[in-house]
Amino acid sequence: MSPSDYIRSHIRTVPDWPAPGVQFRDITPLLSNPRVFRVLIDQFVHRYFDTRPSAVAGLDARGFIIGSVLAYELNVGFVPIRKKGKLPFTTVQESYELEYGSAAVEMHTDAVRHGARRRRTMAPGPPLHALRSMVGCTPLLSIRCRFRGVERTIHAKHEVANFTGSIKDRMALHILADAYERGLIRPGDTIAEATSGNTGISFAALGRALGHPVRIYMPDWMSRERVLVIRALGATIIPVSKEEGGFLGSIRAADAFAEEQGNVFLPHQFDSAANVEAHRLTTGPEILDQMRRRQGEPTGFVAGVGTGGTVMGVGGFLREALGRIAVHPLEPANSPTLRTGNKVGAHRIQGISDEFVPSIVKLDQIDPVVDIWDGDAILMAQALASRLGIGVGISSGANFLGALKLAEEQGRSAAVATVFPDSNKKYLSTDLCSEEPRLEGYLAPEVELLSWEATPRSA
After folding, report:
1. Average pLDDT of the segment spanning 105-128
2. Relative to the CA of 112, which of 16, 84, 165, 215 has its CA 20 to 30 Å away?
3. Parallel, antiparallel or unpaired: strands 81-85 and 300-304
4. Residue 23 pLDDT more than 80?
5. 129-166+273-455 and 168-265 share one CATH topology?
């Protein structure tokens, strides 16, 4: 039985609701209580159809059931709905006109009628719930090594397993889902974002899958591979030179485009609470679950700061779950922006230290900054690939060394977690694939990599 058929036959009589010991023979009186009705419908969808309905800004609870059920039945994403008017129905007394891509649908409580075709505003593609199955639930690598004579294990989420091969898929998908639920983005709207690379790839892929034009503003010194991948995904790239403001200039350019054009959605990843929430809801719980399956719990977490969403979200979750544990942001020693608040230096760890301290980074809520030289990070990433077969990007090398520094500080019982944000494939034209000098004070030459195990994806 389809969701709409079920509702048509049970809108007045629900013989067995999920609440223990409670039965509702007639739910008509509840329709006047939006809060109660919303709770009941949420239970209904979860119980019978195993999917979470998306909330749409501006709808009352009665429209909520209509929209969520129709979205499920048509296997499409949820978009804003506007009221059309009142009709004399037995219970709900409302009709709604819904726009789902190319189809106009008029929905009654006892019927679903497809209307005339409209000009396409949203390309065919998987709805958000399908994309969610492609993002997150990545393996956890437990890497054994010997550092300064002591054997240690570092635990790293292998984020290359995501939809586009980087951790940024988590944040991009959650920001888009949040925007749909709040009615901030509509079919055909352009997504415009400033990025140093991986976020641009994520929004390009997810945006096109959902039918949106995508414009990416990025500094013109990012790796050639990043540019080619974004273009291959159908997005438009607007390079911004240092003379035009570099990364901050990219943000200003994206904002100016939105102001001039209209119908533009700006994710604003550096200021988005949904960015932090993505990692609090997914990455953090996955780390804890997978380490517990290995009969342990993390004693600390280290992650490089680009937007800061990872360290703030994962760190926040782990502290909520475990109490006081060490949570350290990481940045290049060459560019101590977090420690100084304004000092920016040239460095080669693409994706972190983007010229300013993002607003979502709350340094007073986490532990002191860990710093790693970019050359050291390159050597470590090269070693992970050549000795263990784990092909990761430069920031992964930095994160591994940062986690190792914390583990050394904590002692033999340390169980430090981090993330490997992406693979080495976007850095083939960079110094990652060149011979890097080993300078005095580097940590990577002192690391002997031994072996690794993988804890499978979380359910």
Report:
1. 39
2. 16
3. unpaired
4. no
5. yes
Question: What tokens does 191 get?
Answer: 């997504």
> Residues 137-192: pLDDT tens digits?
999 999 999 999 999 999 999 999 999 999 999 999 999 999 988 889 988 899 99
Does residue 73 register a pLDDT over 80?
no
DSSP codes joined into one string, 68-99:
HHHHHHHT-----EEEEE----SS---EEEEE
Between CA 385 and CA 380 the distance in angstroms is 9
Q: Cα-flanking dihedrals φ and ψ of residue 448, to 5°?
A: -105, 110
Q: What is the dihedral of CA 67, 73, 74, 78, to 10 degrees?
A: 30
Q: What is the pLDDT of residue 143?
A: 99
Confidence of residue 332 (pLDDT cuts 50, 70, 90): very high
- The CATH architecture one would assign to domain 168-265 is 3-Layer(aba) Sandwich (3.40)
Q: Is 168 a catalytic residue?
A: yes
Best CATH choice for the domain 129-166+273-455 from the list 1.10.8.60, 3.30.565.10, 3.30.70.20, 3.40.50.1100: 3.40.50.1100
Q: Which amino acid, 297?
A: E
Compute the average pLDDT of residues 25-54.
Answer: 40
Q: Which of 275, 363, 352 is nearest to 314 (CA)?
A: 275
What are the domain boundaries of the chain? 3-117, 129-166+273-455, 168-265
Of 168, 202, 223, 353, the active-site residue reads: 168
Q: Which ranges of 31-139 does DSSP label H, i.e. alpha helix?
A: 34-49, 61-74, 128-132
Catalytic residue among 166, 395, 396, 423: 395
The DSSP element (H or E) to which 304 belongs, if any, is strand 300-304
How much is the pTM?
A: 0.73
